[in-house]
Structure formats: structure tokens, C-alpha cells
Design goal:
Blueprint (H helix, E strand, L loop, with lengths): L1 H26 L9 H14 L7 H15 L5 H11 L8 H20 L7
Helix pairs in contact: 2-3, 2-5, 3-5, 4-5
């Protein structure tokens, strides 16, 4: 009986630690220190949408990216955003041409969204 209680305690402790780690992950913005977690998630989701294979939705993701970047450009750290785009759009030797095309087109659209949002770097 004592062993079962001990195992239950260990499992609940592990579960609490996992929940705390998950909460920490989603309550902080890794693309900017002043960034809310929901905006952080949105920006990342928009980048991933632009590099998807589904070409029918890319126009919507592009327009949303421009609007979100224009609205939250003060909160997003430019270098972290560019690093995230570069990381998400890496290609490998084993990829097929259509997949590489989607990724490269997505990278171009991410960079064009920056230009269209009139994001100016502060000197």
C-alpha cells in the first residue's frame, strides 16, 4: 500500500513539473521580450502557414502576416524574427523540388511581409 502512494506522489510531481514547463513555454514570448504569448504564437503560426504546401491559403497568411507585423512591430525583435524564419525555412538534401519550392516561396513571402508592413529598424 505504501509503495502505491509513493508512486502516485511521484507521478503527480512529474505531472506538475510538465505542466509548469508547458505553462512557462507558452507564457513567454521568445520572439521579443515585450511580446505577449498569444502574439508570439500567432507570428510563428503565420510563418509556418506561409511555408506550407497548401498554396490556396498562402495569400491569407501573407495578408495576416503584414497586418500583425505592422501592428506589433515594436514588440517583435527583428533579429529573433529573422532567425526564426531562417530556422523554419531550412532545406535538406533529401527534399523533393516541390517541397523546396514551397519553403523558398514561404521565405520570400515572410521577407516581403516585413517590407509591406513598413517595418523600420530603429537606429
Amino acid at each position: 500500500m505504501g509503495r502505491k502512494v509513493s508512486m502516485d506522489f511521484e507521478e503527480s510531481k512529474e505531472k506538475e513539473l510538465a505542466e509548469a514547463a508547458l505553462k512557462k513555454k507558452y507564457m513567454t514570448g521568445d520572439l521579443g521580450a515585450n511580446m505577449a504569448p498569444d502574439v508570439n504564437y500567432t507570428v510563428k503560426r503565420l510563418v509556418r502557414g506561409l511555408i506550407s504546401d497548401n498554396h490556396a491559403v498562402k495569400r491569407g497568411f501573407f495578408l495576416a502576416s503584414v497586418q500583425v507585423l505592422a501592428r506589433f512591430k515594436e514588440a517583435i525583435e527583428f533579429t529573433k524574427y529573422i532567425d526564426f524564419i531562417k530556422e523554419e525555412t531550412k532545406t535538406s538534401e533529401g527534399m523533393k523540388n516541390p517541397e523546396i519550392h514551397s519553403i523558398q516561396m514561404g521565405r520570400m513571402m515572410c521577407l516581403t511581409a516585413i517590407v509591406e508592413s513598413e517595418w523600420k529598424l530603429q537606429s
